[in-house]
Amino acid sequence: MPAFIHCHIATSLDGRIARADGSVDWLLEGAPPPEAFGFEAFYAGIDAILMGRGTYEAVRAMGDWPYPGKPVMVVTTRPLEDTPAGVEIIGGGVEAAVAALESRGHARIWAEGGGQLLRGLMAIGRLDRLEMAVLPLVLGEGPMLFPPGTVETRFRLVEARTVEGGCLHLVYDRIA
Q1: Which Gene3D superfamilies does the record cross-reference, listed alphabetically (predicted)?
Q2: Considering the entire predicted model, what is its pTM?
Q3: 5-33 tens-digit pLDDT
Q4: CA distance 39 to 33
Q5: How far apart are CA 133 and CA 35, in angstroms?
Q6: CB 74 within 8 A of CB 53
Q7: Which residues pair with 174 in a beta bridge?
Q8: How many CB atoms lie within 10 A of CB 9?
Q9: Which of 39, 95, 123, 165 lies at 20 to 30 Å from 129 by C-alpha?
Q10: Helices 94-103 and 115-123, interaxial angle, to 10°?
């Protein structure tokens, strides 16, 4: 049975997932805690994490590795230095990464980001759920949640609620 691939991500009102310099400091300044968006329950239910190189570098820049005990696969063609325990590199692209995780029995995968990874998952029809914390901020520049070249994909709204500070918590399932 194919793994369920779930993206739980924060975005600005203009669809940016980081500043132009790659930083995500805006997520830590005045945003509600992750629990407000159901993150703790989500995280407890995943088997593995899949991320692109840019996301990996942004997470590493934030300090201590926040995912001890969870296997992490980073899709990149360049080597990584000083990787934490449980982090593995795969250079064969998104489809190869998903196949590798599934072959190890991982049934619930968090597609942490970024936009290129999501574009790749959508291209192969493997992004099952998109869960977004939308913060009331326009960044103007920076990587997009869905970069140019993302294939058309239809989703069905499963949940929408307002969170403190004017944020939105939106959950969509892909329509097969």
Answers
A1: Dihydrofolate Reductase, subunit A (3.40.430.10)
A2: 0.94
A3: 999 999 999 999 999 998 888 988 878 98
A4: 9
A5: 11
A6: yes
A7: 155
A8: 20
A9: 165
A10: 80
